[in-house]
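Quick start: read one record
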Amino acid sequence: MFSVLSIVLCGTLLISIFARGYRLDTDNGFKLKATGLLSATSKPKSAKVYINDILTTATDDTINLPPGEYRLQISKDGYLPWNKTIKIQKELVYQTETQLFRAAPDLKTITPTIISHSFLNQDATKIIFFIASTSATQKAGLYLFEPSEYIIQFSDNLPKLLIANSSTIDWSKYTYQFSPNSKQLLASSKNFLVNYLLPLDQTITSKNIIDITPKLVEIKKQWENDRLQILKTKMEKIPKIVSDFVSTSSSILALSSDENKILYQASQSGSLLSVMGTPPPTQSTQAQTRDIKKDFYYVYDLKDDTNYSIGDSSLSSIVWLPNSNYLLFTQNKSVSVVEYDNTNRLTLYTGNNIIKNILPSSDGNKIILALDKLYSLTIRDR
């Protein structure tokens, strides 16, 4: 009985030791050596895992590695490769949840006719634009597109005609501003000295088209109060060391889908102090930036207390790609993504036309491009 109990206890101890990453070192007299674990997953699955340029395994596998730095690449035919220099530490698990992007994204036309003057709302979930001439399928007027249900059926999510042009109003002659909650649209004309407040959550009729110029100052004051309240709610989620670098007038302040990371544009230069006396053992080992430069874009990781520089103000339309750790942005005539720690900067689209606006679908699998027409670009798999 005692011998059986001893075997069970020894077996349990060995399992515990091996689970912590220890392995027998047969080159040194069967001694135990400490290793770390690499857990590599990918979407899509079954991608190749290269360690120091050697094909080692496939994703959705866990392997033991001696402590040290490694060049890790995850690749799959038809997709752009993912690369990162990682640091394996003894008794710890380095976990990758790799998102692979299509090497040849699928571009499709949403609007058959030319569009103009597109405008995005604050959180890049809605876009309005104009169609100048009436065709067999579309009237001239102001259109709204919000890809909130884009993953269901493309045909079910076509642009919605908000209001058609009339003999007295050409909506392409107006400038537009979304309300802070994106439920209203302020249409203004300097030439005609009129301002209309258009509802986006109900049908627009002649009864809705009322000149609100006498109330314009009051409405804008209320919108500014609403904007500051939204900003205050966001600021409550971030440490003071970061909020000190965020201007109340900054248009860039956004949380990632898991709310663990903050994208912000610095309002001033300075040094970002640490909020953790002792870094967590699983803190990212990627090179971070604590010296802040005004107007540069950064991502701060709330869990790790790490800060990464994404780039300067030459980046445009920068937003989080939903359900990912990636940021989406435009630069020159290209659309790119970059991982939150400033690795894996990938170009997804380059064209000859100026990119007027971009916004991601709610699932993050497609990008909506406002070029000469409105297009969808499928960049990753469901």
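Residues 13-17, 150-156 have pLDDT under 50 and may be disordered.
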